């Protein structure tokens, strides 16, 4: 049952990044859109994410519940030493969701709409930024559980160049995913061309920030190069990610947009595999040396069995209806 829970944890994190990341990315795309085109972008975005934006956070909730119940040591370490970026990320999620509802469903259209738009746009940038910072922090080796002062324990655990670089890389990936998804939602050729340009821009940004991540990893002694290029699985994942990106742009130039989302999702999945496989099952790298492993920090057997069965049975109830939700709202209006 240990492996079942770990599989659900990995799946929840992956789906939150792919679906929630594209959700955040829609706001990022809007941020980098001119004023005259923002209304069109907003309309397309509402059609794409409006019906299912709430469901995206289900994966984050599942991941948090699994960490809290099955891996209390990991949950405690993150919630204590990374409580500042976690709080900022959660505030961003709340602010973004609230602004989305009010700007979309508010019966009174007045100057507050502009306030809602700004809150939505900037929280769409801040939230994935700090999501990436948190992800970078757990593998950066900067979390000091033996720290004696506030800054060392709660600030420098996440405020470092590597974590910030991962945060910016995450923002670029979210923007890229959203642009690719929105291409398929666009009916007019003009809108498709506009989102293609956004996808190109975010793709370039992802490459640049990816290089920054490797540079920061080198100077801060994070063995990222070893994880990715000196590991057989990591190397294969990088090759597959590169090939899928080439195929994605080839099909895009040919005007074939149906499988673009699958290719974009596959590419991001391979990037995550390349980064995480080599240090699995270690979840958190510590500054004093060593790491907190998923296997070593798992809860008692009875707790694990109860959670495992709850996840398995719950998936049979939730996933079919979630799939039906996606299917119904992907049907084009006549």
UniProtKB/TrEMBL annotation:
GO terms for cellular component: cytochrome complex; plasma membrane. InterPro entries: Cyt-d_oxidase_su2 (IPR003317). It is found in: Cell membrane. GO terms for biological process: aerobic electron transport chain. Keywords: Cell membrane, Membrane, Transmembrane, Transmembrane helix. GO terms for molecular function: electron transfer activity; oxidoreductase activity, acting on diphenols and related substances as donors, oxygen as acceptor. The chain crosses the membrane at residues 6-32, 53-74, 80-99, 119-139, 159-183, 204-221, 233-252, 259-280, 307-327. Its main location: membrane. Pfam families: Cyt_bd_oxida_II. It is a multi-pass membrane protein. The keyword Iron does not apply. Belongs to the cytochrome ubiquinol oxidase subunit 2 family. This is Cytochrome d ubiquinol oxidase subunit II. It comes from Pedobacter polaris.
